[in-house]
Amino acid sequence: MKVFDEIESDVMSYARAFPRVFNKAQGEYLYDEEGNQYLDFLAGAGTLNYGHNNPIFKQALLEYIEQDGITHGLDLHTKAKREFLEAFSEKILQPRDLTYVMQFTGPTGTNAVEAALKIARKYKGRENIISFTNGFHGCSLGALSATGNSHHRGASGVSMSGVARMPYEGYLGDDIDTTAYLDKVLSDSSSGIDHPAAVLVETVQGEGGINAASVEWLRNLQDVCHKHDVLLIVDDIQAGCGRTGSYFSFEEAGIVPDIVTLSKSLSGYGLPFAVVLMKPELDQWKPGEHNGTFRGNNLAFVTATAAINHYWSDDKFAKEILRKGEYIEQRLEHIVETYGDGNMTTRGRGMFRGLNCVSGELAGKITSEAFRNGLVIETSGADDHVVKTLCPLTVSDENLKKALDIVEAAVAKVLRGEEVPEEHDFFAEGSDETESLADAA
Ligand code: PLP
Question: Are residues 72 and 127 in the same domain?
Fold first, then answer.
């Protein structure tokens, strides 16, 4: 680890939890230099929904490079960009009756959030943005203002303004509808909350601890936005691209945000890529106003097109995600019932699930034990108290079972010091879907 210790900045984080030198990856597998194999349930923090080096995308990429296709294109029109826009329009937007225009931003999620906030403020002529407790939107200053986490906020060195925080669903307990509170403060000219340009929300808060908003809450939120002439921005950077069981995470709620941010798994291959989708009337940018050298990552366009064409031409993939998600839920529920002390719970939607251990120390011990047994899996939440099962959506049934066996064994060992019986039949009382998963495995 010499060179990393010597010259890499202390800002590194994941490398501390997984101190190996990785040199190869395929599908849901990661390999280190010593040849050890790991199942990757971190998957680039939601960037590798289709696995590492997905062979379909790799082939498209290799052919493109071989033909000297454009790699870097600023925002020039290119063939690769045209094909991406056509695929996205035909396979993603049109079947969902969505009429967004697409802005190519700098290739990180945080830059897409910056652009979304800027266009919302510009369009409405108001500064204030509402974001939510435990929300995470990135680490550049504008996005950081909307991020809740004090660890990240503390590093800013300047005051962060222009954002007011509201309680996310469940923050004040199960019986309180926090959208009613939002409605109340927006209706009251003396609430101290300035009339906002937009509300920025994650449908499932990833970094915030897999807090999944209900469809009712999301619909109510949209109603409140409409009532008060406020734009609704869904930050779908982590929850989008299929993670919850549909391409966009808001589809199940039947809402239509005014603005959507996408990044992470958009390119499919782990290549940097981020966009803002906005209703056409919001597109009030002047040429080059939100600029950036790397808005034309054509290699990402190639793999993103392959991802859309291969996985989103019909609903087969979405059904698979729901089936596997149900299996993950059952396994996590089983862990809670068997080993939980009454406080442990499960969370999430689709294949965006987590085990809420309440204590960060406990969750950390579980993920460390899992790593010793060949599973790369991380925590999230304010106190890192949620074990987050963020595996590739393409994971095989066999490996999904294997990884959850490792999680269960880690929980059993950490909480009870016991080993789990090897031939535990997790499928015995499963639903039809889960049984078919067992059959396939
Ligand atoms: N928004 C959400 C919901 C995220 O989960 C993240 C990253 O985890 C971001 C924004 C920031 O993306 P990036 O790390 O690419 O800047």
Answer: yes
| Closest residue to atom 7 of ligand 1, CA basis | 138
Nearest to 365 by CA among 348, 383, 379, 380: 379
- Among 287, 311, 335, the domain boundary falls at 311
Rounded-to-integer distance, Cα 56 and Cα 88, Å:
18
Same domain, 227 and 203: yes
* Torsions phi, psi for 32 (to 5 deg): -100, 175
Answer whether residue 435 shows pLDDT above 60: no
Closest CA to 146 of 189, 101, 205: 205
* Structure confidence by residue, pLDDT tens digits, 275-300: 999 999 999 999 999 999 999 999 99
**HEC letters along 29-93:** EEEECCCCEEEECCHHHHCCCCCECCHHHHHHHHHHHHCCCCCECCCCCCHHHHHHHHHHHHHHH
Range of the domain at 434: 2-54+315-440
Q: Which atom of ligand 1 is nearest to the CA of 140?
A: 16
Label the pairing between strands 29-32 and 37-40.
Answer: antiparallel
Domain at 39, CATH number: 3.90.1150.10
Q: pLDDT for 52-71, tens place per residue?
A: 999 999 999 999 999 999 99
Residue 355, beta-bridge partner list = 346, 387
Beta carbons within 8 Å of 104's beta carbon, 6+ residues apart: 75, 81, 274, 275, 295, 296
Overall pTM surpassing 0.70 (yes/no): yes
Is 108 near ligand 1, meaning CB less than 6 Å away?
yes
Span from the CA of 111 to the centroid of ligand 1 (angstroms): 9
Nearest Cα to 215, choosing from 189, 192, 244?
Answer: 244
> Please, where are the H alpha helices in 48-201?
55-66, 79-87, 109-124, 141-145, 150-153, 178-187
Give the CA angle between residues 211, 336, 135 to the nearest 5°.
10
Q: Is 149's C-beta closer than 6 angstroms to any atom of ligand 1?
A: no
Q: Do 298 and 384 share a domain, yes or no?
A: no
272: CATH? 3.40.640.10
Verify that 168 and 272 share a domain, yes or no. yes
